[in-house]
Amino acid sequence: MNIGEASSRSGLPAKTIRYYEDIGLIRPDRGDNGYRDYGADDVHKLRFLHRSRSLGFSVEECRQLLALYEDKSRASADVKDIAATKLTEIDRKIRELTELRRTLEHLVHACHGNERPDCPILEELSEG
Amino acid sequence: MNIGEASSRSGLPAKTIRYYEDIGLIRPDRGDNGYRDYGADDVHKLRFLHRSRSLGFSVEECRQLLALYEDKSRASADVKDIAATKLTEIDRKIRELTELRRTLEHLVHACHGNERPDCPILEELSEG
DNA sequence: ATGAACCTTCCTGTTACTGGAAGGTCAAGG
DNA sequence: CCTTGACCTTCCAGTAACAGGAAGGTTCAT
Fold first, then answer.
1. Diameter of chain A by CA atoms?
2. What is the spatial distance, in angstroms and rounded to an integer, between the CA atom of A22 and the C1' atom of C28?
3. Are residues A85 and A37 in the same domain?
């Protein structure tokens, strides 16, 4: 498929997809006309990149994560180390998002424009 | 407190804190010597910024989230709209992180270097 | 009072894109 | 066959969100 379809299927702008090729994250085939040609596996990788980037992982971290998939038969020690580190990070992110969610929900349901002292958000914030 | 202590308490580099001041996210006092002077509430905001940035929210989104705290007595309709939108995003992020976590965990526990066809990761990836 | 460890502003560099120009390709309609 | 519009290509410039480092002022302990 062309880059346009890969873009709409992955959710990434075509510009970003070309950039990811520039920095060596994906290597699509080329047709005789010079157009990039993406397969289903490329789209999987692009969706994966889209997701992990939006979750606060840097491009270099995404490169590592992607390598876990592509280089599955590598010595397991390395793979496990990297994966385990990322798991810890992911758990932290989930915890922090859950906290943030709780705080925001209080704001929506309990803090409707009344004055400061009785706002539950302030209590949470002042816990530190 | 000086910027150094605000930095170590919030986890943000001093450079970043100055940058956040440049773009109007925080406005610390200044001492007679010209040094920035941060209070406990500033540190709360900085920690909040640190967390939400690392969770994939842009600086502009963080500005909105911060405004929810600072502008608590604003017309609730606006506040609730923004907060509700962010809640949806947060829920999506939590779902995606949980998925990513599950996939990685499989990689660590089930996919230890053996060949492709029987690797559970590949099945997940090919679901699409 | 001198050195280390802070702080200040300013200017440049990096990462991860984003927009736009200039031009080639393709499928449909007149 | 030709053109029109929607694709695609490369390349170059701009933006966002910082990071590094120079040049210099402040504070504090020895």
1. 69
2. 34
3. no
